[in-house]
């Protein structure tokens, strides 16, 4: 399952390449645009407008202990962050938090690993199969395989899964890379499900119901755009599973940075207060701003794509969003491009035009697909639009493809 | 190698037990004192005196990106933290930083795992053996075994290691739990060495030379007492090893909290400035304060222990400390108690007196040893001294032992 492409995972997932370095340091039209990762810099504009409303101050003598809340199952969770998470979910209506254990993590990737650890018996004779319906998030296989654990193994596309015995299905909803609403597909009694709800926020998708699953993962990165903080959280129904996840976090990193938790709590509280009329309304509400900005980006991309038959993008149904109280469209954090058949390798095409995306083959599907970030900084996004226009208008498939 | 005790690792290492919860919430003489973990709260007094000198302020719009320094091999390391680490080491003289790669981690436990990942070939037929001379830090076996990786396996005491083939030796210097100066003991050509220098700071031990090893791990927790920040760093000689450690960090947690890095950088810069006469001298210098406080605690513990033959503690040679420019004593972060033979289980004895320590059996040696933290908060430490006096003076081995 973990083929050649997994052997050099980082260049295909996260670490900056020579190209992305160029993208950051050289500001001109000729630079390479890195849309491979989902670095959510588009939201920086909003937080700039907010000025010092979310500023946190931490003195040298504060939060020195490993412990944040010794009475809590998750002993390293700041009570203020736990409260902020619950308030935010109640305000948005995207997840049930009552009677749930909150486990904080260094981003949701770490909590994914914690969940695998929690769901796999330490003494099983065979590793538990981990599956997800293709196209699946490219980091799931990597996170499952990189330490060659004998607790679990990556078993690929959930649609094709036929092995007997216990398994774990990861359901990403709305799905990364394609934004589609997802449900479990294996549905056997011996299965456990991890719901990755990183993008279940109003700027990306209609909030159709409060999610109420056994293990739900969220990340601060995609909620507010604060990727640098490395804060994720899990809402967990079962106490024993939550305790095992905390055990994982305890061994792996002895908890989570208190500074990052403090800042995440502050930012979440400011957002929630603004929705509850507890704060002055001199700045647009966060999710309204973010939703408008995402919709605008998607409109512009779709307009360009519609000019030719080179590419297609997924279509999403209009659905009633209980948060917005109206019918809204899905505007995912990634655009899932499909090239027409004679182009072949979609990410190669973009690469030749100095646009870095991630090939469909890392998501368990064909190379005619390519995932491009829709949440990059304004300048990169505008430059991307200009190049995409040029590709589409000239029908310019560079030579050598 | 990974026996029953490893199956419930957390209660034996880090997570708060019902007892430690009591220790935190009940402030009276009857409470249980948790000296099991090395929560470095004794240094809080110093940072309180420093008032706002180390305060950091972070606005909502700052440090949102995953990236901190895309041009650096360690692309998530804040340049300010890299600089602060180098300046601090140059000031203290405890490690060579020239021509070294710095890899930042979520505490040094995470970097230990990153080093294992970096040193073990992904396609080896057999897991690489990981050893450390007993008594070894109780978390090494746990960190090596908890995911049942087939890249590496815990192979126990380095003194007893006779297996052929590649191996990794972890050298903790000065050693946790016993404070002894350590060197590698296996010394074969097919071995790699990880040096854990968590306690190689002037408050714990004489700085006899600038350490100059291939992989050196440090942690902010034990350097300044800021355990809550979860900041560790590795100084790595070989570029390919550093790159693989960065790869581990990229997959496992997509880097390290920027907020924690900012605060660590600020605190290290304040310490270094104070030694370089760049700051006003209205507060004692950090390492002088910390060294004095550690020496004072050790003196008080040794005075009590000397009153009977119930316990013994390691003796350390007086050595020349290049940082202090005089002969100084080792005053480790942990006291490594040895009970006389007829007592038997040392941690049980302490537990009956409501003192939680960690049994020698978790360090690969006999239960007549027990590790107790010497860096707890003032109140806990004073209460510990009173109870230790009572045990020693009454020769009070509680019934039922």
TrEMBL record, chains A, B:
GO biological process assignments: amino acid metabolic process
Domain Alliinase C-terminal: 33-392
Cited Gene3D superfamilies: Aspartate Aminotransferase, domain 1 (3.90.1150.10), EGF-like, alliinase (2.10.25.30), Type I PLP-dependent aspartate aminotransferase-like (Major domain) (3.40.640.10)
Cofactor: pyridoxal 5'-phosphate
Domain of life assignment: Eukaryota
Family note: Belongs to the alliinase family.
Protein name: Alliinase, C-terminal
Species: Dillenia turbinata
């Amino acid at each position: 399952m973990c083929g050649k492409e997994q052997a050099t995972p980082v260049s295909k997932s996260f670490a900056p390449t020579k190209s992305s370095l160029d993208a950051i340091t050289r500001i001109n039209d000729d630079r390479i645009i890195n849309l491979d990762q989902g670095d959510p810099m588009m939201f920086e504009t909003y937080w700039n407008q907010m000025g010092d409303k979310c500023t946190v101050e931490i003195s040298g003598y504060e939060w020195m202990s490993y412990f944040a809340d010794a009475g809590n199952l998750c002993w390293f969770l700041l009570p203020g962050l736990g409260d902020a998470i619950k308030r935010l979910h109640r305000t948005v209506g995207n997840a049930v938090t009552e009677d749930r254990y909150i486990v904080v993590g260094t981003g949701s990737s770490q909590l994914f690993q914690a969940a695998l650890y929690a769901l796999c018996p330490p003494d099983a004779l065979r590793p538990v199969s981990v599956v997800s319906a293709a196209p699946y998030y490219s980091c799931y296989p990597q996170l499952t395989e990189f330490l060659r654990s004998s607790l679990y193994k990556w078993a690929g596309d959930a649609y094709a899964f036929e092995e007997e015995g216990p398994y774990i299905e990861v359901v990403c909803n709305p799905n990364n890379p394609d934004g589609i609403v997802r449900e479990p597909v294996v549905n056997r009694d011996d299965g456990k499900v991890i719901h990755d709800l990183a993008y279940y926020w109003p700027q990306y998708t209609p909030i159709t119901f409060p999610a109420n699953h056994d293990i739900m993962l969220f990340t601060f990165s995609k909620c507010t755009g604060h990727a640098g903080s490395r804060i994720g959280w899990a809402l967990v129904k079962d106490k024993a599973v939550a305790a095992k996840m905390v055990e994982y976090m305890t061994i792996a990193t002895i908890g989570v940075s208190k500074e990052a938790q403090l800042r995440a709590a502050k930012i979440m509280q400011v957002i929630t207060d603004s929705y509850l009329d507890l704060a002055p309304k001199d700045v647009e509400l966060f999710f309204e701003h973010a939703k408008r900005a995402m919709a605008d980006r998607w409109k512009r991309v779709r307009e360009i794509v519609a000019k030719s038959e080179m590419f297609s993008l997924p279509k999403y149904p209009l659905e009633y969003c209980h948060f917005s109280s109206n019918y809204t469209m899905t505007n995912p954090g990634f655009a899932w491009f499909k090239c027409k058949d004679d182009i072949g390798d979609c990410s190669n095409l973009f690469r030749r035009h100095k646009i870095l995306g991630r090939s469909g083959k890392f998501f368990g599907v064909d190379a005619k697909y390519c995932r491009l970030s829709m949440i990059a900084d304004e300048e990169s996004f505008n430059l991307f639009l200009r190049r995409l226009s040029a590709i589409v208008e000239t029908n310019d498939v560079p030579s050598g493809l």
